[in-house]
Design brief:
mainly alpha; about 0% strand; globular
Length: about 170
């Protein structure tokens, strides 16, 4: 099952945190970023997707080194739609932040400095999408289906945040 399917299942499952409001907030933030940077929405979605791939690698590293609980703790602590530089610092060293910004710039044509300034918004946004699958009563409890799908436990490589954001936009009629 794909990432978007996991998100929709989380929205439909009252024991998980996902809601259409949360999904709407994520989409609104992507649209606001697009507007404020003068970037077309599909390019901004690509930016989120590329950053998401780096977030996935960092969370996979935490999962391997410290267990699933650590990956979930990062998602719980730093997810949101507001800027949070600590979210970026929790996943990436300063040098890695520069590498992420340069990689995004190379793939999208946007300015690397601007991307680096956007990371404190983009990283919590990706984490917020992942939080949709957390247990509604106890977010530290295991079994976050969205996070597990994102981390691609079966290693088939079939995870794409851009597709999930585009499908969410269609799902909410935007």
């Amino acid at each position: 099952m794909g990432l978007f399917d996991q998100i929709i299942n989380a929205i439909d499952n009252p024991s998980q945190q996902g809601s259409t409001g949360q999904l709407g907030d994520i989409l609104n933030t992507v649209q606001q970023l697009s507007n404020s940077t003068g970037t077309n929405p599909s390019t901004m979605q690509s930016v989120v997707g590329i950053v998401g791939n780096y977030v996935r690698s960092a969370l996979q590293e935490k999962q391997v080194n410290y267990g699933n609980q650590e990956a979930q703790a990062v998602v719980n602590q730093y997810s949101g739609t507001s800027p949070n530089p600590q979210a970026v610092d929790s996943l990436f060293s300063y040098g890695m932040q520069q590498q992420v910004a340069e990689a995004v710039a190379q793939r999208t044509g946007l300015n690397a400095g601007m991307i680096q300034q956007l990371l404190p918004i983009l990283v919590p946004l990706v984490l917020n999408l992942l939080r949709t699958g957390a247990n509604a009563q106890n977010s530290q409890a295991g079994g976050n289906s969205v996070l597990n799908s994102f981390l691609d436990s079966d290693r088939d490589g079939d995870v794409d945040i851009v597709d999930a954001i585009q499908m969410a936009s269609r799902y909410l009629g935007r």
